Amino acid sequence: MRRIGLVLEYVGTEYQGFQVQAGEAGAATDEAIGGPGPETARAAQSSGAGRAMGIGRTGRTVQGTVEAAIARITGEQCRITGAGRTDAGVHALGQVASFDTCSRIPGDRFAPALNTALPPDVRVLRSFQAPDGFNARYDAIAKVYRYIIVPSRIVGGARPGPEAQLDPGAQPGGAILAGRALLVRRPLDMQAMAQASGCLVGQHDFRAFASTGSSAKTSVRTIRRLEVGPIRFEILGLDAVAVEIEADGFLYKMVRTIVGALLGVGTGRADVGSVETLLASGDRSKGPATAPPDGLYLVRVIYPEPVATLVSGAM
């Protein structure tokens, strides 16, 4: 038995999140693999058994799709463990997963083999034979998420006003970026958003930025880096704003709630100090609406060596 690591890229638009759901066609089942394994049991214990098994939701998931592809090329029913359980509609540029197999396929050949059995919106970028005991979820020491926002324009200094609202359908790139970025029909003050975000860096209690349903034992997390900056879609001629956050862990919908708070500042609905006030309050009911999943990407999962090198492919 060997443990294999996968680095996955996927477009989450057509998926009900990463985590497999009960009864999903093609996915491995606990009965098929001899009951819940240690990793599945740990996941169920930490997040509630029903939610960990996907009970109560229907539809295709990334995990189920990858498990079906593994079964197709190996003949094995394998349960994979993902580093991050991305929600429905959330994308990934560098999700990491691990699974056990008796297959003789070399570790680095799983990527091309699986890609022949996967749909085009899920790709295996790299595969590798992982060290014994490697767990994609529990061995991660940090994750990086990026949220992409495409406003009508980016401003700096001057506060955008409600008169800048665009008519529906007037925003270029809407058809191309639908589901891949959040389209905001108003200008954004990127400078104000960056200023407001500074208070979130460091170790804090982020309970005001966690949606209900989180089963985390503590709401204290450490944000190592939070950057608000411009990016450009050259082919579309569009400027966008990226909010990138690196932390040792994230609460349920924490990134999307942070983005919701920063959007309030960027559009002029809230002042720069509102984010710090919300953080200090510890009260989610005082916070903004959670930003939609469209613009959210799991960019990278960070591990200690030697897995860091295996994941990056820098060998």
**Number of domains in the coordinates?**
2
Name the overall outline. globular
Order of helices and strands: EHHHEEHEEEHEEHEEEHHEH
Q: Count all strands and give the number.
A: 12
Instruction: Estimate the mean pLDDT confidence.
Output: 87
* Uncertain residue segments: 31-58, 162-168
Structure class: alpha+beta
CATH overall fold name of the largest domain: Alpha-Beta Plaits
Main sheet: strands, sense, barrel: 10 strands, mixed
Gross CATH architecture of the largest domain: 2-Layer Sandwich
Q: Please report which band the strand proportion falls in: under 5%, 5-15%, 15-25%, 25-35%, 35-45% or over 45%.
A: 25-35%
Overall helicity: 10-25%
Number of helices: 9
Give the radius of gyration: 20 Å
Identify the CATH homologous superfamily of the largest domain: Pseudouridine synthase I, catalytic domain, C-terminal subdomain
Q: Compute the separation of the termini in Å.
A: 24 Å
